[in-house]
Amino acid sequence: MKKLIIINGPNLNLLGKREPNIYGSLSFTEFMDEIQNKYPNITIEHFQSNIEGELIDKIQDVGFDYDGIILNAAAYTHTSVGIGDAVKAIKTPVVEVHISNTFGREEFRHQSFISANAKGVILGFGLQSYELAIQSFIDVKSI
What we know:
- This protein is an alpha/beta fold.
- The protein is built from five helices and five strands, in the order βααβαβαββα.
- The protein has a five-stranded parallel beta sheet with strand order 2-1-3-4-5, with helices on both faces.
- The relative contact order is 0.19.
């Protein structure tokens, strides 16, 4: 059984309440319930923190034993060399995810310290971005 983890950064604990025009009205707990029901043959864990060091610790903790990490570092994507270095240091593939299209937002959100070391980047599809990332670990094919 594949073992994946979704790691969410700052303010994503407010999904369902925060700026529903950008992030939707579904809480992440409700979304996780849907995802776990949809993919019963995959272990999908979730971790969220507003603290940069806790995100780095979690990436390092799971980065050698899991089949995949789905990482939405939120605002830390654009500011944290440390998170980018943690992604580079581990063996587990990481898919960078964003709910919104970061390129359609403020210019500072166009920079990512994660993308260069990620397996791929998915953004702009709302919470479906996470599901697309899950699919990327299920449908791994040689090109």
